[in-house]
Amino acid sequence: MKAKQTVNILEWCLMLVMLLPISAALSAAESETRNPEQVIQYLQSSLLHVMQDGEKLGYDGRYKYLEPVIDQSHDVDLIIKTILGATYWSQLDATQQNLMVETFRQLSIATYAGRFTHHEGEQFRIIEQRDLPRDQVLVRSQLTQSDGGTVNFDYVLHQDQGQWRITNILFDGVSDLAIKRGEYRAILQRSGFQALIDMLKEKIASTRLNPQ
Questions:
Q1: How far apart are CA 179 and CA 176, in angstroms?
Q2: Distance of CA 125 to the CA centre of its chain
Q3: CB contact at 8 A, 167 and 75
Q4: Are 42 and 73 in contact (CB under 8 A)?
Q5: 122 φ, ψ to 5°?
Q6: What is the mean pLDDT of the chain?
Q7: Is residue 100 exposed (0-12), middle (13-18) or buried (19+ Cβ within 10 Å)?
Q8: Looking at residue 212, what is its pLDDT?
Q9: Quick one: which of 30, 34, 28, 36 has its CA closest to 131?
């Protein structure tokens, strides 16, 4: 290889390295300027991508791809605090709270990675957006399945440090938050904190072994 060619390649590589922080900054800025509908479109287009490439990506690939998507679109901290409620949350020390948030975060990502595994022509569409009390917004959407059937996905979002993020999802009118609230609090009351963590970890493992 000629010396001039080598210099050009080195200059090109150096330029790419210098641009990496700029690209990351632009990505972060873009996520902060999305309106509620755009947040849901970002989530759902990402789900369609992992469905279309589901077999090639495998579980680990789907998890890795969706991890930053869920981190940007879901307010995991608020969701788990709401599920447990102020009383149970305040009874946990800082270490337990951090473990709870991180374990629930992993379960949230794993659930998507385990459920959205392949594509058979399904399509998402946004139906409407409307305001809710307490500065929240509802984005209603629908998934059309390959057999023509539909599933309604309604998302409740709020602003966290200027970014719209999901705090609850309703599947055909059934609140995911309400289901988890009853389940998680019952375990805490009956068996304690460690039992709840163990249950969440079992669910995480199950998404890998038994994708839906």
A1: 5
A2: 18
A3: yes
A4: yes
A5: -65, 150
A6: 88
A7: buried
A8: 66
A9: 36
Q: For residue 97, what are its two tokens?
A: 């709270």
Cα→Cα distances 165→33, 36, 59, 60, 174, Å: 11, 8, 25, 24, 19
Q: Which two tokens stand for residue 15?
A: 């330029």
Tokens describing residue 212? 């839906």
Nearest-angstrom CA–CA distance, 39 and 32: 10
Ramachandran assignment for 162, one of left (phi > 0), alpha (psi -120 to 50 degrees), beta (any other): left
Both tokens of residue 167? 């705090």
Token pair of 99 as six digits: 């473990």
Give the C-alpha separation, 133 to 152, whole Å. 21
Structure-block tokens of residue 158: 């709020």
Give the total residue count for the chain: 212
Each residue's pLDDT tens digit, 27-80: 445 556 799 999 999 999 999 999 999 999 999 999 999 999 999 999 999 999
Taking the CA atoms of 53, 54, 59 and 63 in sequence, report the sign of the dihedral they define: positive
